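User: Hi! I'm working on a homework problem where we have to compare a predicted structure to a textbook description. Could you give me the structure for the chain below?
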Amino acid sequence: MSLSILIFGFITLTKILAVWVDRGTLYYQKNNPEVKIVSRYIDLGAGGGGTEPGDYKIVLKRPITPFFKLETSVDTNAIDKSDWIKEGYK
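Assistant: Happy to help. Predicted structure tokens:
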């Protein structure tokens, strides 16, 4: 019984402490280079992460203030490529 509680607690704590980490910049906007399309993955620390297809997302990052950024999911096939400069991974 106590082993199952310990395992459940570890899994729950790992999920709570998970963070999204930028993998790399795919595109940035010509008019405003601060607006970027990035690839991100979920980092679970010791619990892993970044290894499954569901761990990755493509998001559009728009800075509102230096401390607040608006992030939304985006489909790179649907964007107007003339407004964006392809960066690729570094």
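For your comparison, note the following. The chain has one helix and five strands. The chain has a mean pLDDT of 83. Good luck with the assignment!
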